[in-house]
Amino acid sequence: MYSEKVMDHFSNPRNVGEIDAPSGVGEVGNPVCGDIMKIFLKIEDNRIVDAKFKTFGCGAAIASSSMATELIRGKTLEEAWEVSNKAVAEALEGLPPVKMHCSVLAEEAIHKAINDYRVQQGLEPWEEKNHHTHGHEEESCGV
Ligand code: FES
Known about the structure:
single chain, alpha+beta, Sufe protein. Chain: A, 5 helices, about 40% helix, binds FE2/S2 (inorganic) cluster
């Protein structure tokens, strides 16, 4: 039921770990399944020069965080902000419908980490435009 890409990023996740003195950290959890994802960013000149993650969660959440950190590395903050959970799922060659919400955690964690950085810089946090991030708490986790 999982694509080869998902299996690959699940069994051999990229960018696992923490960053010392990160520029921004985003932690999100899904209260339904209890899974937690934490993303660390190192930002230089408005660009993400390093991204790492720690995820205590299902295989789809681990594969999503691995792929998400790969996608945002080297991007500007504006570009990284636009990386949606759909983009993460597409890069993974698809997730089963009951597992799409796991990729939402990655998008939310990236947004939180970027805003953590912005607030530390004395900047206004950016606003979420996507409404799917609100209310996914009520979705079943499919576990
Ligand atoms: Fe909870 Fe995937 S994130 S089941």
